[in-house]
Every structure is written in structure tokens, then in C-alpha cells.
Specification:
With 252 residues, the chain is mainly α. It is built from 10 helices and 2 strands, in the order αααααααββααα. Helix 6 packs across helix 9. The radius of gyration is 18 Å and the shape is globular.
């Protein structure tokens, strides 16, 4: 228990909150302590019955069952791993910027979920963060199942294809890719391609709640459309670099 507690508190703040909320709500729903019906996204109940908590619980709650348990654990791994990498890396000096990214992706996920009548939103939310890390570290070599290795930029599409072929789904993954790309375009592509300011700015109240700190971060945002030298800057988090070919095992 002490090791688990030490690991939990070693996670950066926002990743820790997100992980804890997902585990707690999902387990409460799994064991019937909370009725999952009150945790899912529902347009009528939100706007006509003012159950305004549902957009938040729909992102955190995932219906655990013998059929979905493994998928839930994989999602938790991606959540912890890639959220931690970004929060400690790219957004290390300015956690308020990471909070802004999570709020924007959450808003897009809720809007898309309402439009497409989706009940839970863990998949697109996690994939949107994973997509962002992969685009900030396009040349980082990652390892997938069966020993396959490829640049990180392909990982979101591999996950989409994997779930589409084997699980008969893929819509949630595709939604997460689209949401992640919308944020990536507004934050990075637009100012680099058109020379303007980013279309996203961090609200002042988030700067006050998550003050900037020294250290961390990659220092230089990725150059859109250009190779990023010999490797990616994120690697194992905290701003450390890796040489090309070192890779990262997704199952560690």
C-alpha cells in the first residue's frame, strides 16, 4: 500500500486528479454504489432537467464489465502515461496551459458526444491527449504489441485501426483524434503556418490556481511539417531526450 500511495502521489497534479476521478467513479458504478444511469451523458436530462454534472461524470465514468474490463485498463494506462508525459514535459513550466488543454478537449468531447448520442466519453478524451503527445513527439519510436515499432505519429491511427478491426468500433478513437487535432491546430499549427498568435489563450483564473513554475518543458514547440532531428524531446517525461531508435514500450 505504501508503494501504491507513493506512486499515486508521484503523478503530477492534474493527471492524478483525472486518474483518481476515473477510477473512483467507475468502481462506484461497477459495484452499484452509484447508479451508472446518473453518470452518463444525456441531452434531455442535462438541458431539460438541469442535471449539469453529467458532462463531467460522462468523461470520468466508464462501465466496467467482464467484456470491457481489459479495455478500461488499457485506457487507464494511456491516461496515466501520456497525460503525465505532457504535463511534466511540454506543459511542465505552465500547468495552467495543460489545464486549459484538458478543458478545451473536454468541451469538444461533450459537444461531439451530445451530437453523436454517446453515453461515456473516456475513449475520445484519452485519445485526444495521446494524439497531442504523439504529434509533439512525431519521431519518437514506440513499441506496440507483437514487437511492432513505428514513429509515435502513427500510434493514434494504429489504435483506431486495431479497435475498428477487432472490436468493431473505432468511432470513439476517431473522435479523439479529431479533437486532439483541433487543439493541436489552434495551439501550434495556426501560428506556425500563418504567423499569427495561437488561437488559444489560458484564462487568468487558471494562471492563479495553477501558477507557473521553473524547470520542465521542452523549450521549443514542434516545427509543423518538418523533421525534428534525431529524436523526440518528450521521451520518458520531465523534458529528457532520447536518441532515435531507443523506443518506448507501451506495455511497460
Amino acid at each position: 500500500m505504501s508503494d501504491a500511495q507513493q506512486w499515486f502521489y508521484s503523478l503530477p497534479k492534474l493527471t492524478r486528479y483525472w486518474f483518481a476521478g476515473t477510477v473512483v467513479l467507475s468502481l462506484l458504478g461497477r459495484f452499484g454504489i452509484l447508479n451508472p444511469y446518473y453518470l452518463i451523458l444525456n441531452y434531455d436530462l442535462i438541458f431539460n432537467h438541469f442535471q449539469i454534472w453529467r458532462p463531467l461524470t460522462a468523461v470520468l465514468f466508464y462501465p466496467i464489465s467482464p467484456q470491457t474490463g481489459f479495455h478500461f485498463l488499457i485506457n487507464l494506462y494511456f491516461l496515466v502515461n501520456y497525460s503525465k508525459l505532457i504535463e511534466e514535459g511540454e506543459y511542465g513550466p505552465r500547468p495552467a496551459d495543460y489545464a486549459t488543454m484538458l478543458l478545451i478537449n473536454w468541451g469538444f468531447s461533450v459537444l461531439a458526444g451530445l451530437f453523436m448520442n454517446m453515453l461515456v466519453l473516456m475513449d475520445p478524451m484519452v485519445l485526444s491527449v495521446l494524439y497531442l503527445w504523439c504529434n509533439l513527439n512525431k519521431d519518437q519510436i514506440v513499441s506496440f504489441w507483437f514487437g511492432t515499432k513505428f514513429p509515435a505519429w502513427y500510434l493514434p491511427w494504429v489504435l483506431f485501426g486495431f479497435n475498428f478491426i477487432l472490436g468493431g468500433g473505432g468511432i470513439s478513437e476517431l473522435m479523439g483524434i479529431v479533437i486532439g487535432h483541433l487543439y493541436y491546430f489552434m495551439k501550434y499549427q495556426y501560428p506556425q503556418q500563418y504567423g499569427g498568435a495561437p488561437l488559444i489563450s489560458t484564462p487568468g483564473f487558471l494562471d492563479q490556481y495553477f501558477p507557473a513554475r521553473q524547470g520542465g518543458g521542452f523549450g521549443v514547440p514542434p516545427q509543423v511539417g518538418a523533421a525534428r532531428g534525431g529524436g523526440a524531446a518528450a521521451g520518458g517525461g520531465g523534458g529528457g531526450g532520447h536518441r532515435w531508435g531507443q523506443g518506448r514500450n507501451l506495455n511497460d
